[in-house]
């Protein structure tokens, strides 16, 4: 299946934003070693995509809330059909259909963004000044736009360069290898950090899943994906890493807004017969890193004074008056 329609769409949005910034006076030439019109075009490519996908993102949050609300019923089904996976799957699908909850909705926004990422990766990887005229004008580009983008830099590092660029690729782009590695390396670390924070933000608000498989997925999202970027980030053009970092920052802000607009359902208090292992943690309000001030402790009630017991042989302090014995009639 040809992906040319994606390359045309990404190129059109990128060139439209570049033209818009150029029209309002953002210089196309480098300022502080950076061609800001092209950098802003990549940033607003993210904004455009996220605005288009915002309704899907809201549906994702609502679906996650519905899935959380169904957890007690899911646990009951797991206990009822323990050892019978086929029946369990049928019952769970029927429950999801009845309650209009879609487990796959949580991954939909991410899957919809993959073609955009691949399209930008392909478009920026083609920014080679040595290409033929026919190659430069693919996907709706003009010669002037292609040459301008090929020369575009972020702090003197070409947006088409990458940490793993060969000496030949750097020579074609007219770039300094050390500069490209420093800029790309810093951006890769920022990309890893912001990717980690986006997952951590959601887990801090919704808590760790009790299901072992879901918990494993959460750990993969929190630790596995950021660590994988340390290796894969070496093949990403700098322009693609700018897109990824901007997308993560947009996600952090959007998740914060949505989590306030659609807060997680309150957790049920423990009841007899209901396991409280791995309870969902309450929402933290100290920011992304979860730093919160300790809540003031209630003043402890003064302990009752201890009363010393009587010493051996001592008379009691308050002896009871003995009643006179009744005479026998």
Task: Please give a structural write-up.
The structure is a single chain. The radius of gyration is 32 Å and the shape is elongated. The chain has a two-stranded antiparallel sheet with strand order 1-2. It has helices at residues 4-23, 36-69, 71-80, 85-99, 108-125, 133-136, 143-151, 167-173, 177-206, 212-232, 238-261, and strands at residues 153-154, 157-158. Strand 1 (153-154) and strand 2 (157-158) form a beta hairpin. Residues 268-295 have low confidence and may be disordered. The chain is built from eleven helices and two strands. It has 329 residues and is mainly α.
Quickly describe the structure:
The protein has helices spanning 4-23, 36-69, 71-80, 85-99, 108-125, 133-136, 143-151, 167-173, 177-206, 212-232, 238-261; strands spanning 153-154, 157-158. With 329 residues, it is mainly α. Strands 1-2 form a two-stranded antiparallel sheet.
Compile the SSE list and pairings.
Blueprint: H1 4-23, H2 36-69, H3 71-80, H4 85-99, H5 108-125, H6 133-136, H7 143-151, E1 153-154, E2 157-158, H8 167-173, H9 177-206, H10 212-232, H11 238-261
Helix pairs in contact: 1-2, 1-5, 2-5, 2-11, 3-4, 5-11, 9-10, 9-11
- Overall outline: elongated
Order of helices and strands: HHHHHHHEEHHHH
- Estimate the strand proportion: under 5%
Question: In percent, how helical is the residue content?
Answer: 55-70%
Mean pLDDT: 79
| Count, helices | 11
Q: Report strand order across the widest sheet.
A: 1-2
What class would the helix/strand composition place it in? mainly alpha
- Distance N to C terminus: 119 Å
Q: Main beta sheet, described? A: 2 strands, antiparallel
Low-pLDDT stretches are: 268-295
Q: What is the C-alpha radius of gyration, as a whole number of Å?
A: 32 Å
Report the strand count.
2
């Amino acid at each position: 299946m040809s992906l040319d329609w994606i390359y045309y769409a990404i190129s059109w949005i990128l060139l439209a934003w570049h033209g818009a910034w150029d029209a309002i006076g953002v210089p196309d030439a480098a300022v502080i070693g950076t061609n800001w019109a092209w950098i802003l075009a990549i940033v607003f490519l993210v904004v455009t995509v996220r605005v288009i996908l915002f309704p899907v993102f809201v549906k994702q949050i609502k679906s996650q809330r519905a899935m959380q609300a169904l957890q007690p019923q899911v646990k009951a089904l797991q206990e009822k059909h323990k050892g019978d996976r086929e029946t369990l799957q049928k019952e769970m699908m029927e429950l999801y259909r009845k309650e209009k909850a879609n487990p796959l909705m949580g991954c939909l926004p991410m899957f919809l963004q993959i073609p955009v990422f691949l399209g930008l990766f392909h478009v920026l990887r083609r920014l080679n000044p040595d290409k033929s005229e026919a190659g430069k004008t693919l996907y709706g580009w003009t010669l002037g736009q292609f040459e301008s983008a090929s020369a575009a830099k972020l702090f003197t590092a070409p947006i088409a360069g990458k940490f793993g660029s060969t000496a030949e690729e750097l020579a074609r782009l007219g770039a300094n290898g050390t500069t490209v590695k420093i800029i790309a390396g810093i951006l890769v670390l920022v990309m890893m950090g912001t990717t980690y924070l986006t997952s951590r933000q959601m887990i801090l608000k919704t808590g760790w899943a009790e299901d072992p498989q879901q918990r494993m997925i959460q750990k993969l999202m929190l630790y596995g994906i950021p660590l994988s970027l340390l290796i894969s980030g070496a093949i990403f053009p700098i322009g693609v890493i700018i897109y990824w970092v901007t997308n993560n920052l947009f996600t952090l802000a959007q998740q914060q807004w949505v989590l306030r607009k659609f807060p997680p359902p309150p957790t049920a208090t423990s009841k007899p017969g209901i396991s409280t292992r791995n309870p969902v943690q309450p929402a933290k309000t100290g920011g992304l890193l979860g730093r919160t001030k300790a809540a003031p402790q209630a003043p402890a009630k003064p302990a009752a004074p201890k009363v010393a017991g009587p010493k051996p042989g001592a008379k009691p302090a308050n002896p009871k008056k003995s009643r006179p014995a009744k005479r026998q009639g």
